[in-house]
Amino acid sequence: QVQLVESGGGLVQAGGFLRLSCAASGRIVRTNAMGWYRQAPGKQREMVATITSGGSTTYADSVKGRFTISRDNAKNTVYLQMNSLKPEDTAVYYCNADIQSYYRRSDYWGQGTQVTVSS
Predict the structure, then answer these.
(1) For the segment 85-101, what is each residue's pLDDT rounded down to a tens digit?
(2) pLDDT tens-place string over residues 12-63
C-alpha cells in the first residue's frame, strides 16, 4: 500500500522558519499533484500550497511570499519551506498526494505534523 510520512514540524518563534518534508512510499507507479494543507483548532482544513508533477505551484494568499513548495520526483517527496512564520500559521499540517499505485489511482494523506508559532 501507499504511505505518506511527514517530518519537520515543531515549535518556533514568530519570524522564524521551518521546513516540512513528506515522503511517499509503497508500490508507486506515478505521483501526480502533491500539496500541503493545514487545520487550526476550531477551523476547517485549508489548502496551503500545491505543486503539479511538472512543477506548477499554487499558494493560499495568506502564505504567498513566505512559503515555498517544492518536490523531488525521484524521491516522491514534497517539501514546504516556511519563512517569516506568524502565530496564525499555527496548525496541524497535512501532506496530500494524488498517486497512481500498482492497483489504483487515489488521494492519500499523511498523519499530520504540528507547527506551533509563538508570539
Answers:
(1) 999 999 999 999 999 99
(2) 999 999 999 999 999 999 999 999 999 999 999 999 999 999 999 999 999 9
Query: Given phi > 0 = left and psi -120 to 50 = alpha, else beta, which region is 96?
Result: beta
Q: In what order do the strands lie in the sheet with 77-82?
A: 3-7, 18-25, 77-82, 67-72
Cα separation, 20 vs 115, whole angstroms: 9
CA dist., res. 16 & res. 18, Å (int): 7
The Cα–Cα gap between 88 and 94 comes to 16
Furthest C-alpha separation in the chain: 46
C-alpha cell at 10: 515543531
| Buried/exposed code over 34-47 (b: 16+ C-beta within 10 A; e: otherwise) | bbbbbeeeeeeeee
Q: What is the mean pLDDT of the chain?
A: 97
